[in-house]
Amino acid sequence: MAMAVGSGGGPQSNINMTPMIDILLVLLIIFMAISPVSPHGLDTLAPQPPPPNQPQNQDNDRTVVIVLDNQGNVKLNQNEATWDTLNDRLIDIFKSRAEKVVFVKGDKDLEFQVVARAIDIAHGAGIDKVGLMTPKVEEGK
After folding, report:
1. CB neighbours of residue 69 within 10 Å
2. Ordered alpha helix ranges (H), 17-124
3. Which of 1, 23, 27, 75 is an S-S bond match for 67, by CB 3.0 to 4.6 Å?
4. Residue closest to 82 by CA, chosen among 105, 93, 66, 70
5. What is the rounded CA–CA span in Å between residue 110 and residue 72?
6. Lowest-confidence region among 50-54, 76-80, 111-115
7. How far is it, in rounded angstroms, from Cα 131 to Cα 55?
8. Which helix (H) or strand (E) holds 139?
C-alpha cells in the first residue's frame, strides 16, 4: 500500500481495488458452478435378452460378435481372425450397414486391457455402438 506524504496540492483519486477483486472472485465461482463437469468413458451397449414368450429369431447374420479367449485368440462371429486383420474385416462387414453395432465377448479370466483394445479397434473401424456380452446376458437373466 502506498501513502502520499506532504501537501499534494489538491485531492487525489485512487481506485480501491478490493471491491473489484471481490466481484471477480464471485463471478469466477458462479461460472465454475454452472459449467458442466461430466466424465466421459467408453460408450457401451449391453445386449438385452429376448422376451420369454416370443420365439427367438434365427437371423444371426445381423449380429456381429468379437469373441476373445484367454489364449489371445480372436474370433469374429466364430470365424478365426487376428488382431491385425480385425479392423479391415469390421470395415468390410459394416460398410453397407446403416446400423453399426458390435458386441464383445471376453473370457472371464481375460484382462480388461485386451477387451479395451477390441473396443478401440471397433471404434476405429467406424462402429457407433459397442456392447459387452456377459454370461448373465447370454443366459437371458
Report:
1. 14
2. 18-34, 83-94, 112-124
3. 75
4. 66
5. 9
6. 50-54
7. 23
8. helix 135-139
Query: Which residue has 437373466 as its cell numbers?
Result: 141
> How far is C-alpha 36 from the chain's CA centre?
17
Describe the crossing of helices 83-94 and 112-124 by its angle, rounded to 10 degrees: 40
Question: The C-alpha cell of 52 is what?
Answer: 420369454
**CATH code for the part of the protein at 60-139:** 3.30.420.270
Q: What is the dihedral of CA 139, 126, 59, 131, to 10 degrees?
A: 10
| Residue of 20, 14, 13 lying closest to 1 (CA atoms) | 14
Distance (Å, rounded) from C-alpha 29 to C-alpha 31? 6
Neighbours of 91 (CB within 10 A): 13
What are 128's three cell numbers? 457407433
The two beta strands, 101-106 and 65-68, are parallel
